[in-house]
């Protein structure tokens, strides 16, 4: 059994990885936690039987102690990944690191290189590689069912409610406080694309902006908060009263672990960040963005990330020299059509857990990797850093209006 410590008992640490340990105590056990929020720290510690002396307010205090266990899960906020990860690597921890690795491209590379130099396990949380759904897509591509991949259309449907929750009102609304949206949300997709295509990305161009979620689009009669007598609250699709108080109570846990008591929920949306009008927040990340990619072998990719969708799942079309694959993650459906030939439908195995079971499979592989002392079977820190650099390059292109040569970009770091 692997003993582990957790830095950051937020949504991912608490529910994705903490729940895995609770359901599989024979595989992994948390023996220490660092979390500045006392309620979350206490809750996680009590769930996992962590003694008082191993409950820390900050990651600095936890890492000030001699090595406490085998593994460390870094689930702090985006801007707080680099320093604790580097310090933990030096102390001998094997690490599961939430994405993004860092909000700085040079730091992402430095983390990956240092882990290799020290011979430490570094698994970055790109769980989609571990999803049975995308595993099946990879098998189809590598098996040659559609011939040689030439073109990919890939869409990250963020979902209108997810955009409002996470990227307008929530923790990832402001690039200076977290990271650019293309990095935070879509380094997953950059990783999936380089994995499925199987060659290096050569060039990147991108366009995108924050076009809708700002005060210029606030409806007449709207207020600073949904609870402040907003004249359009009842018909607004982004109403905080609708999402956090009345209908969508599953969002209560996601929104800063608000209590299930109605009076507490009301107070949270009356005074907290999730009760603000979506047109009057301090958000600055894009609400839609496109990225064009060229990979080795003349493979071209058109990637779209948008917050203006009803669905909240990836859709894609992979086009090869002998056929095509259409994918809809939400329906767990893969359609393969060979040119002038058969049409096949695939419905991959579904596994319990977040991201359609991908979180479960990621944790399972991380534990197995530590137990067998072998390199990761699906990815590595260096590979993850490369996909991060594609996202960084896309943001550089969006801001500059230039096409980014990836070789030159990496050398400039």
Automatic annotation (TrEMBL):
In Swiss-Prot or TrEMBL terms, this protein is called: Gfo/Idh/MocA family oxidoreductase
Q: Which superkingdom?
A: Bacteria
> Which lineage?
Bacteria, Bacillati, Bacillota, Bacilli, Bacillales
Q: Which InterPro entries match?
A: Gfo/Idh/MocA-like_OxRdtase_N, Gfo/Idh/MocA_Oxidoreductases, GFO_IDH_MocA-like_dom, NAD(P)-bd_dom_sf
- Domain spans labelled Gfo/Idh/MocA-like oxidoreductase N-terminal: 4-125
Q: Which Pfam families does the record associate with it?
A: GFO_IDH_MocA, GFO_IDH_MocA_C3
**In what residue span(s) does the GFO/IDH/MocA-like oxidoreductase domain sit?**
134-326
Report the GO molecular function annotations: nucleotide binding
